[in-house]
Write a structure and sequence with these properties.
Rossmann fold; 2 domains; 267 residues; 13% strand
């Protein structure tokens, strides 16, 4: 099915709704169901990367904002400033906002935004206690801001391992986008072994799961990673989630308004 006709599109939408109806319950993991729906769409349409152009656009938008970001950091070089800017970058999400959204203006308007949940002191303590961190990135474009934060983290003498998706899902960053953002210059890049949306425990590769299990310090970007991590055993790990809350369920869970910027230690 290539979805060239309206009837084929309707059939595909119907398939997706049926899958959600059959698999959704009070114990289901939303980002796992979303991943399964996206995988079905890719198989049926034979389109492996529907957001290819949006990911290129995202990196371009982020790079165009670097001069303004550097002005802010020149005035305030604190870890908190880098965290806030990285979290504002989480706005760049074509899976949430309308495709016609003026992301550049939206980010510019929020560059001086405040962290509504701000566990910066705990993060600083963890940076001083550990010698390595697993950094779970989220979207293309936003990783340009992540690179700046990772550079700041490295000032603490910490090795950074950056985890990206193994295959496309919405506008999540894969190896291609990470290389374009030159993340290899600031950390070791690995893949999670799946095209899962966020972290979905039973979709991860054995290799990545070993890295995850051995990591006692994790920094995670985005809502889907937050959803996945809260479903996992995080005993004996320091885990921090950075995100812009862009939907009602996550905002309710965090007790913040939609559009809030968050740095939260969840374990």
């Amino acid at each position: 099915m290539s979805c060239d006709s309206e009837s084929q599109k309707f059939e595909l939408v119907q398939d997706c709704i049926m899958h959600m109806a059959e698999n959704f319950n009070k114990d289901s993991q939303p980002n796992k169901i979303a991943t399964e729906v996206n995988q079905h769409i890719k198989r049926q349409t034979k389109c492996s990367d529907a957001y290819f152009k949006q990911k290129e656009t995202s990196n371009g938008i982020a790079l165009s904002l670097i001069p303004k970001v550097e002005e802010i950091l020149a005035a305030n070089n604190s870890l908190e400033a880098y965290v806030k800017l990285s979290t504002v970058g989480n706005i760049l999400d074509f899976g949430v906002y309308d495709i016609n959204t003026d992301f550049k203006k939206l980010i510019e308007d929020n560059l001086n935004g405040k962290l509504i949940i701000n566990h910066i002191k705990s993060l600083e303590e963890s940076l001083q206690e550990h010698d390595e961190v697993l950094y779970l990135v989220d979207n293309a474009g936003e990783i340009v801001f992540d690179r700046l934060l990772i550079e700041k983290i490295r000032e603490y003498g910490i090795k950074v391992v950056v985890a990206v998706k193994s295959g496309p899902i919405v506008n999540d960053a894969c190896m291609k986008e990470a290389v374009e953002a030159r993340l290899y210059e600031v950390g070791e890049i690995i893949t999670v072994g799946s095209d899962c949306g966020g972290i979905v425990e039973d979709m991860l590769s054995d290799d990545f799961r070993n890295v995850f299990d051995e990591s006692d310090f994790i920094i995670s970007k985005g809502m889907a990673n937050y959803e996945g991590l809260t479903e996992m055993n995080l005993d004996n790990k320091d885990v921090f989630c950075l995100l812009c809350s862009k939907c009602q369920p996550i905002s309710k869970d965090l007790s913040v308004d939609i559009g809030s910027f968050v740095l939260k230690k969840i374990n």
